[in-house]
Amino acid sequence: MDGRAKLVRLFELQRFYGSLYESYVVHGVNPTLDPDDKENRFDEEWRINHYFNVGGDALRVIVAALLQSLRAVPQTIIDFPCGSGRVTRHLRAFFPEARIFASDLYEGHVDFCVREFGAEGIISKENFDDVDFGLRFDLIFCGSLLTHLPENLFRSALLLISRSLSDRGLAVITLHGRHSEFFQKHKNKYLADDLFAVAEATVADTGFGYVDYGHPLRSMFNRQKRYASASPGRIGASVW
Length: 240
What we know:
Layout: H1 3-27, H2 45-68, E1 76-79, H3 88-94, E2 99-104, H4 107-117, E3 120-123, E4 137-142, H5 151-163, E5 165-173, H6 178-186, H7 193-200, H8 203-206, E6 210-211, E7 229-230
Parallel strand pairs: 1-2, 1-4, 2-3, 4-5
Antiparallel strand pairs: 6-7
């Protein structure tokens, strides 16, 4: 496809995605919140607004990536991990004709997304080498997962995503990357400086940093043996 053909294709897709956006605005997003959501507190209005804004911003990143890559509207989509549908609900509202899959380690998350958003559920595993989704996807959204994994699981997850893409598939993956270093040193700290230093120490040589740390949610989400703060350096960039 030459440059002119790509330009024509871009504007054709923009018009089509624009019509999806108009429908998305008119019909809205399912606002049902999971009463058993242990990751998010909905005790204040700003928390609820933030929750929906983050999901909407993920959709913005996804649509921008699809347009930039000149991809047609995806017919098979997976939100991995789905949690309680922060992004799944937006995907369902924007792509009403697509088959949307919700995958997570925790059955409660998956069951909620199946029940409320008409997703097809897939229970994941911590060892991604053992995961087979059973089909390939035109779009894989992986938000806030890889940035919390040690290097072996990080690589395993990337391999899973790669082998799960269709021939025209696109993966959108969010990472902290260099942003986390700036945030740690100049804004609110992710974790204690001595722990962050452990992760940061290997970045210059390997491009990757990781450290295990305690977190209040670990007692509620205990299927991950290792899940912490990864990649404070050069392997990616935050998109949220």
